[in-house]
């Protein structure tokens, strides 16, 4: 990466930066930073603002902010039960958003058609208020994707979409260039750039909803593995000879900790209440629900403790629907990680609920779409 691209990428990633911050973060000399920034200001890719004097001493420094090209990007989050599509300008301000219930698992072709329809409608809506092209579209999928990121990599998970060239199918239906990524990877990207992980270089993000998947970031780079299945921790075995899992094995983490399983246990204390799922944050205060959530958190934490021993992350961020279940669940995760960590290593890793909540995957899809748009040459700043 050239010096110019390094500086531009840093300011875009962090939202703003001062010249001294650039020198420190990128290990560049003052004259180099000054010269490159002068060029980027002349190209109108950066703007300069007076910073706030937070410390109350000395003169506030001047801050550089990114200026984005015209146009929009589209992101979509496909879950086992819902589809959310949003379009945003390149500063990631959402200008159009739609959400519907879908059934990917049993009605695959219909789900594909609905996804394409929703993308088309969202694009139409954003074109009413945003000038410039729709530059990129990223769709997050709740399953492992093969290396070329075009198809489901597992014959058992999301099997109804297995073998389909999903990017091509959606591309031909929408007229856009569509890229795919795993949903937990997108959640990790969003939390890394905009959320609770705050640009920490090594991060484990867990999407805990109907499935359990992890997105890994190592040295600031998302890791998808040799075969696209890195972070599929939902299918690590925690109970030998336990219940059968949808993946074809027995006793997987998902058979114990998914939101469906946890709600089934809590249901005993709310007989006749058919809609516990939408009230999860509220019922999490029930004393028995708290115990169940804490125990589920500790089970997830035992698997994550092993992952922490392997990767030594700075942060473990818990997202998905289970992150909405109050503090008990995340406290349980933290409890196991701290209890099982090696002596001297405890308390260093941040274990926290997602700052972006159930929107992390959607924001991640928009963030990756913007990265693709900027990489592919959407360089001219907005009028
Ligand atoms: Zn499984």
Automatic annotation (TrEMBL):
InterPro entries: ATPase_NBD, ROK, WH-like_DNA-bd_sf, WH_DNA-bd_sf. Residues 48-67 are annotated as: Disordered. Transmembrane segments: none annotated. Residues 56-66 have a biased composition (Basic residues). Belongs to the ROK (NagC/XylR) family. This is ROK family protein. It comes from Streptomyces hyaluromycini.
